Amino acid sequence: MAGTGSRDRALRERAQAVIPGGMYGHQSVGLLPDDYPQFFEKGEGAHLWDVDGRRYLDFMCAYGPNLFGYAHPEIDAAFVRQLGQGDTLTGPTALMVQLAEALTGMVSHADWAIFCKNGTDATSMALTVARAHTKRRVVVRAKGAYHGAAPWCTPRPAGVIDTDRAHQIFYDYNDVGSLEAAVAQAGDDLACIFAAPFKHDAFVDQAEPDPAYARRARELCDERGALLVVDEVRAGFRLSRDCSWSRIGVQPDLSTWGKCVANGHPISVLLGSDKARAAAASVYVTGSFWYQAAPMAAALETLRLVRETDYLERMTALGERLRQGLAERAAAAGFGFRQTGPATMPLFLFDDDPDLRRGFCFSSEMLARGVYVHPWHNMFLCAAMTEADIDAALDAAEDAFAALKRQAGALPPVEKLAFLTAGAH
């Protein structure tokens, strides 16, 4: 934790008095190394500054929303212009229709859009629409997959009762036999199959979708009259300018989007095909701030940049540069260092590191050198990064591997992650 006298330390102490647990949710640093800052001051481009003035090259990108860079001038200008005209009004502006048209024009399976604020809003709507369409109850979804923080899908069970989690059957991602068995168990009550664009569970190696698995998920939904949902909240527009599964020739009926749709401005969306249009029109979903105009203006500008720039190709090239450089430096230092997931959304794990003590040490050493990485969650590149940024990260990594090698025989256990070895993850 930040030292005595730091602003971060003082804010944590104040937060303990007025915020349950001092911090909550996925942006709590409670399960990160103790030297990670909790509070930040500003972000610009690919960098952010903590409240004590330390600058970091940020490979978390706000856990995904930062696609084109913090404080992007064109996107933020669109937001501010609309803010001056009106934002939360008695009804939506014309931007809502324009944004729905833009998204349905870009995402090949989509014929309609419903806007909301968070990824959890979108995934919960997808489940509701699927149940309304099929008049059935069961959702089949992958073990360990994250689809939000509502009671039906939260990874933490406190306050959740059995009925909140009822009518769910789990399968192993990329395992066709496991998927078929789950669907068979659902029988005539199957409403939908939920799938992530790729396996991006925390604490474990990532994996691209096996085309045979994705195709079988589509076939099973068609055979059973159920809906296929691809949850794009984390990966949307980071792997493709279309739905991620379009790359393997599989189209869902519903897809959920968030995070970088407006480059960090608050908006998420459920997209769907005509098949589910009547069901989507029949359900009651709403929110006081779901119709805000300023985030829609920011989203329109973000989508223009998605369509008209080479952001994805540049990010992918930078990700490959990072991956190759890290592999070389890890090997030179004598470490088994696994890099999984797409190049634009990497995860780093060390071999022979069951309690992540090597990962924690490496991450802390990177942080001390001005590079913010995560020891057990997938990370993100953004289009504001440059080759110079990647090279700086590789220089930091070379030093971090050397520091880890010096400490290798004396690393303390990571007690805050003891639940990992107990099988709780």
UniProtKB/TrEMBL annotation:
It holds the Pfam family Aminotran_3. Its cofactor is pyridoxal 5'-phosphate. Keywords: Pyridoxal phosphate. Signal peptide: none annotated. It comes from the Bacteria. The keyword RNA-binding does not apply. This is Glutamate-1-semialdehyde 2,1-aminomutase.
